[in-house]
Fold these 4 entries.
Entry 1:
Amino acid sequence: MTKIEEKIIRILLVLLILLSLYFSYNIWLDPSGKEVSETPESTMVADKTPASDIFLPMDLISHQNGELFWVRGENLVSIFQEKLNHAKFGDLRVLVEGNEQDYLKELNRKNAFELLYEGNYLLSEYIKTFDLELNTGSSEMSHFPFRRVLVDYDGGVILFANDQKNQIYEATISMNYNELLKKLKEKDVHFQKVSINHDVLKNRYYIDEPITMKKYSYILASQPYTNFRDAFFTHPGDVTTNEETKDLIYTGDNNETMTIEEVSGSLRYRGTVERDSDKSSNIYNQSFPYVSRLGGVFSGIRYFNTSGEHTVIYRTFIEGFPVFSELSKGKVEVSATNISGTETNITVETSVDTIQVPIPADAEVTLPPTSEVVDSLINYGADLKKVDSIVVGYSWTSLNVKQVVDLMPTWFVHYDGKWLPYEELLNRLSEEGSEG
């Protein structure tokens, strides 16, 4: 592409953004910048995202004759999960209970596939979400938190594994593996070698080769506030607004409030939900409705992990990778407390800014293998006890063009309770070292 063509594309892009902003302004906002629409139902919010999309596992690992591969391809995780949904299962039993050596040994299957979450998910919710015909047999097994699902082709068994507790539950499984094996042989499927049982993050897979990923740019849109009002409030038609303060405040029944910061676009909702006596309540099914009703607002929103016992974090995913940003952009964080009581207290934190339209780009970024990231952390003096996880994701970067966002591939390290871009963490460690 010539420089003239690039300039033409940029000019057209700016015109498109200005046109989009003009229509958004006239449809959604009054001259003071405050929301005026009082439509009881929002067409955007009416488009709910199903649980099977939101709680889809994040990664696919293939065991091939004893070798391990991280597998990347369009909708591959969805395809493997869908096939698993129609399998037949035997009774669930305890296979490993707390022994780390036995745990790693059982995960070392010769021919198998794994579906991985970043954070734990409850077995009862997984069964309900994907409509599996699997009988847990007991309340303890039903409430088992797991991070990985492993299906052993040779042994005809399925394993649910918890990395923190070194626990595995096992059941027999009957399903057609041939279609999945054929899918792995298609041209657009990419394999990268991985390994496990390292000194740092022993139960996590290391990607052993450099990773090449596309860089993306997106048009940024500030969603109309009524979308969030209609998604969160019990009776959105009865909500009142206070426009006398700098930030916009919505107030509804049952002490429900929603505050939107004018400058940053950060949003916080607080409310309560009555407990369903016929339903086992947990942070996943209590937080899910608030995220599901944002289906038309957030594209690609999925469960990422939990923070403590009461908070679930959902993130925007691009091409199967989570997006990280400041000020909760592209993220929905839902906290649920007093779950066992008659009413659960709900807090939702997110942002009205969302990415909408992708801008074509051919740029690629190559990331180092996991071992190089870990070595750099060691060399910069990181406290390895504070490293809980390392994942590949996209960093949300605002450009000079206000309504355009760059999504840059990078490693993210969960260090001392926070997710930080790999290079930012190294800079912090370097500053701490120079100060010491």
Entry 2:
Amino acid sequence: MEMDNRVEFLSEEGWRQWHLELLQSTLNRVYERVPFYRKLMDEKGLRPEDITSLEDLRRLPFTTREHLEENYPYDLFAVPLRDIVRLHTFPGISAPIVKGFTARDLLAIRRLTARFLTTCGVTSEDIVQICLDPGMSIWIEELKEGAEALGALVIPPDPQSTSHRLRIMRDFRTSVLITTPSYALYLAEMMVEEGFTPRSLRLAVLVGEGLETSTRLRLEKQLGIDTRLGYGITEAIGPGMGYECEERKGYHLAADYFLPEIIDPETGEPLPPGQKGELVITTLAVKANPLIRFRTGDLTHFLEGNCRCGRTTPRIGQIEGQIDGRVSVRGIKISLRYIEALLKEAYGHVPLYLLRIKRSRFLEKLELWLAINEQLFEPSILGLHRLAEIFEQKFEETFGLPCRVKLVEEDHLREVAKGQRILFD
């Protein structure tokens, strides 16, 4: 795939002009073709022609994950169903979240992912091994297609053991590893145990999680490699939304694909560079499922000034947390709202609970404590175990990760939780 990255070096005025043109085009399409957005804008007394500058963006309503669920299955599509060539679905509370793609959308995602990998340093000469959990299957597909578009040889993930993956890495001389930071650290430990030195490995592209600088430097020294970090939102554009360049000074945002804002989560007002807030995005290049001011729930901040690499795209720092009751575990976003829905499905109500996230050899493991009280009652211990198994099965089917249920005394749960619903051990 021929790459043209000149857009990343536009002047500030060039960006403003292009963003405004794309924003106005997107607003016209959603107002005419998506009744949900027409209704939201009508309620605010807005029409597309009222948005005459980028500063007017703040006048537009927000889109939330709840809106995505409420408009299941295809009420947010801006094209006829016959133009949709692929559907991705994600778990929701009241209904699944569905994202459609036109053929043009798929090509755009492939180009963006290829650009992300190219900026990270991946080339057509590389052998790329992807090691991600099944819960990241959509990213796996997009990363595989992006690397293949560059002409690289790609080894997708398999359900085999870590030892098997290390053998494949050694025998096929993997040069680029794509995984989460936690799994990369786990692999490094396993390499030491097995006496394996990955001489062919030169680069790790780390996605789905942040990484402390000290830990990153230790990983690079131990494996003798370079690393790059990537950022994305599955409901929006995918793994190529933000990526590091050779300067490694924050994520360059793909500003030709979406318009980013950082807002105060409480007031919804835009924040200046340097102040931490919630990342909000408006897609500019999506045909099937455009999103207007989508609240990602991710907390971060804009970095000031341009990068020394010469790119003029906006940059953000690492994600510093979530505001909407979600937590990232091994790159997979887990919502407390969804956990409560699964609990209600299994138990008939939502018991008092605490989600414990334990780290063992760099990998996070989940344990859900449920308080034993008069509400959580079954005639037998076997009955309680049966309900726990039902929840555990549904959780793994939904998120692709195991979660063990543990019944504990209510007083002990409250003492440990101290009013929190998530505890990191």
Entry 3:
Amino acid sequence: MTVEKNLKKAIRGDEKAFEELIKTEKNKLFRMAYLYVKNEDNP
């Protein structure tokens, strides 16, 4: 399933689609979060 389809389903409350979205995009999400906190160990 594409990111776009998972995103639309996740917005509508589909937890499975949300989990899949996180799995496929986790590296991008981590990099974005790191830009904000500047510390890998910061919870």
Entry 4:
Amino acid sequence: MKKKSVQSENSCQSVIQTNYDIIKAHCGELKVKTKEGVHSTIIIQIPNFYLR
């Protein structure tokens, strides 16, 4: 198993948190679907207020 450095993990968490904050500020949603050891799918949904 590959070992992650704490700095790398914290950096990744920081980026994810920043993206989540931006998505929420635009009334959006962030969903993550994971198959451990296979892949992860990240779904970002942001409403388009201009179409209403």
